[in-house]
From TrEMBL:
Domain Major facilitator superfamily (MFS) profile, chain residue ranges per copy: 9-408
Transmembrane segments annotated in the record for this chain: 7-24, 44-64, 76-99, 105-128, 140-159, 165-184, 218-239, 251-272, 284-304, 310-333, 345-372, 384-403
Location in or out of the cell: Cell membrane
Gene Ontology cellular-component terms listed: plasma membrane
Name assigned to this protein: Sugar phosphate permease
Membrane disposition: Multi-pass membrane protein
Keyword annotations: Cell membrane, Membrane, Transmembrane, Transmembrane helix
PANTHER family listed in its UniProt record: CHLORAMPHENICOL EFFLUX PUMP RV0191 (PTHR43124:SF3), PURINE EFFLUX PUMP PBUE (PTHR43124)
Predominant place of localization: membrane
Highest taxon of source: Bacteria
One term of GO molecular function: transmembrane transporter activity
Length: 438
């Protein structure tokens, strides 16, 4: 097989593993109300399922980054797929909360192993100029896993039932794990062998060095501020909010989740191309997405429910921008760190959005439990609960601005001066005026 063809085959299988991983990750979101009835779970307990899954995911990101630098992407992708499949099979058979919690822990472990490993495949196999775009495409096409949750998995859940739905999800996980074992390779044939695996002391030094890099911290805060709102919406509270908080049918709520994925697929390549063409302006994209997300949420929460459908659709579209914008954080990790510690740096960045998602998911559940009426979730309870997001947006915005200043200061010391946006616009106006004179 020609190298060019093999590149696309390897990427496609890695992408399939990530796509199915996203389905596993988001499957509890469409099953939230069913899980509440099956396990007799209160809102805070229901949030606890996802919070624990996210806690496992976030806490493993830096160790997984170190494992990636040591063992390579192929082993981690296979292990991740099979671990998530085991978690879904256990959930299919779970009769109580304890077993279900263990199942979601397994999903969190497998999920942690998958995404940054697939990104490593992208970095190793594609030319440098195409990496930002392919990173966006990987992240965004992978989000079609939410559609697998929202449509076929939901149909199985409300048709044949809980056990057939999650057994089917487990079987799909095993299939992509075996495909990854057969097809995925860590690097192209003939590529230089990676450096010798670092010692535990060198791994720790790599974590410290990566965090000290201003670009890594810029990626961390960028990922935190952009990803969490859409993640919480898709992972757990979106469908309950649209159904119980906005009066939608379950089918209409699932359609909104599909819109979230489609909008992200449209935005992803555009964001990736912008990042590749304007690497010195990546932070403006991040800041714009954080501001837009906060502004539209503010509009929705100020309108007495049910909000107009067009406004809810706009909210979903803006939330979809968070995923592509969060990928900019990985681009910072890649471009500001040497190759031997890029896995560690990406792991640090990936912690941020999931840590924020964890905190917000739990806080929403706790507030819903404290403010819900006797019949369960109420629109007013959701309006109160979603306000917790502002506690993440503010520090994330400050973190991006501070880290950006420090990163630019370091770049200037290395001879790369980032002109102000005002200077760039003035130069363009001057160039246009000069061309008209000629």
């Amino acid at each position: 097989m020609k190298l060019q063809h093999r590149l696309w085959v390897v990427w496609s299988v890695g992408l399939a593993a990530y796509l199915v991983g996203v389905m596993h990750r988001t499957s509890f979101g469409v099953a939230g109300l069913d899980a509440a009835a099956r396990f007799d779970a209160a809102p805070a307990a229901l949030a606890g399922f996802v919070v624990l899954q996210l806690l496992v995911y976030a806490s493993l990101q830096i160790p997984v980054g170190a494992l990636l630098d040591r063992f390579g992407a192929r082993r981690l992708i296979v292990a991740g797929a099979l671990t998530m499949a085991a978690g879904q099979l256990l959930l299919a058979l779970a009769g109580g909360i304890a077993t279900a919690v263990l199942a979601r822990v397994l999903v969190g472990i497998g999920d942690a192993l998958t995404f940054i490993s697939v990104l490593s495949v992208v970095t190793s196999w594609f030319p440098v100029r195409r990496v930002p775009l392919m990173t966006q495409l990987t992240g965004l096409i992978g989000q079609l896993g939410q559609v697998l949750s929202a449509v076929p998995l939901a149909a199985l859940l409300h048709g044949p039932g809980w056990t057939p739905a999650f057994v089917s999800a487990a079987a799909l996980g095993v299939a992509v794990g075996l495909a990854a074992l057969a097809v995925v390779r860590n690097r192209p044939p003939g590529a230089p062998a990676p450096p010798q695996a670092p010692s535990p002391r060198e791994v720790l030094d790599g974590v410290v060095s990566s965090w000290r890099e201003p670009g890594t911290r810029l990626g961390f805060w960028s990922h935190m501020g952009t990803q969490f709102s859409g993640m919480v919406f898709a992972l757990l509270w979106g469908v309950p909010y649209l159904v119980a908080g906005q009066g939608m049918s379950t089918g209409a709520a699932s359609a909104m989740l599909t819109l979230l994925v489609v909008a992200g697929l449209v935005a992803g390549p555009l964001f990736g191309e912008f990042t590749a063409r304007h690497p010195l302006r990546r932070s403006w994209l991040v800041l714009a997405v954080i501001a837009a997300t906060a502004a539209v949420w503010t509009a929705v929460l100020l309108v007495p429910p049910p909000a107009p459908r067009w406004l809810l659709a706009l909210l979903v579209v803006v939330l979809a921008l968070g995923g592509p914008a969060s990928m900019v954080g990985f681009d910072y990790a890649r471009t500001f760190n040497p190759g031997h510690r890029q896995g560690t740096a990406v792991g640090i960045v990936n912690v941020a959005g999931f840590l924020a998602s964890l905190v917000v998911s739990l806080a929403v559940g706790v507030l819903l439990g404290a403010t819900a009426g006797p019949d369960g979730y109420t629109p007013e309870a959701f309006r109160i609960a979603w306000v917790v997001q502002y506690a993440i947006w503010v520090p994330a915005l400050v973190g991006v601005l501070v880290a950006r200043r420090r990163a630019r200061r370091k770049m200037a010391a290395e001879g790369v001066v980032v002109p102000s946006l005002r200077a760039v616009l003035a130069a363009r106006r001057g160039a246009r005026a000069s061309s008209r004179v000629r």
